[in-house]
Write a structure and sequence with these properties.
6 strands; 123 residues; globular; Barwin-like endoglucanases; 4 helices
Length: 123
C-alpha cells in the first residue's frame, strides 16, 4: 500500500464518450487510475491490474493505467478522471457544496476485487 494524493480532471477519452454515460467506452474512460510507473512497481501492479483507492471519504476499485513516458504524474500523485468513480473518493469539503477534485489524500493498494459496474457506482 502507498499513500498518494488524488487529482481528478477531464480527459479526451471521457469527453468523446460523455453523451453515452452508460456505454462501455465511457466506463472504460472513467474507471481508471493513472499512476507513475515507480508507484506501480512499489505495489506490484501493471497496466490493467486493479487497485483499491481509499480516502477518508470512501473507496473505489479501478483499473491501473500506465501513462506514457514524459506524461506520467509525479510519484505519489494519481489521476482519476472526473465522474462517478472519482466521486467515490472525493467529497464536499470546500464548504461551497462543490466537491474537492484535487489534493485528496488517499491510499492505493493492489486488489483482486472487481471494478464495479457503472450501475453499482451510481447506486
Amino acid at each position: 500500500m502507498i499513500e498518494v494524493v488524488v487529482i481528478t480532471g477531464r480527459t479526451t477519452d471521457q469527453g468523446m464518450t460523455i453523451d453515452e454515460k452508460l456505454s462501455h467506452e465511457y466506463v472504460k474512460a472513467v474507471s481508471i487510475c493513472e499512476m507513475n510507473e515507480k508507484d506501480m512497481e512499489k505495489i506490484g501492479v501493471k497496466e490493467g491490474d486493479r487497485v483499491l483507492v481509499k480516502s477518508e471519504l470512501g473507496e473505489v476499485v479501478l483499473y491501473v493505467k500506465k501513462v506514457e513516458e514524459g506524461l506520467q504524474p509525479p510519484e505519489g500523485i494519481v489521476f482519476i478522471p472526473m465522474g462517478p468513480y472519482a466521486n467515490r473518493v472525493v467529497g464536499v469539503l470546500t464548504g461551497s457544496g462543490t466537491p474537492q477534485y484535487k489534493g485528496i489524500k488517499a491510499t492505493v493498494e493492489k486488489t483482486n476485487r472487481n471494478v464495479p459496474s457503472i450501475e453499482e457506482v451510481l447506486e
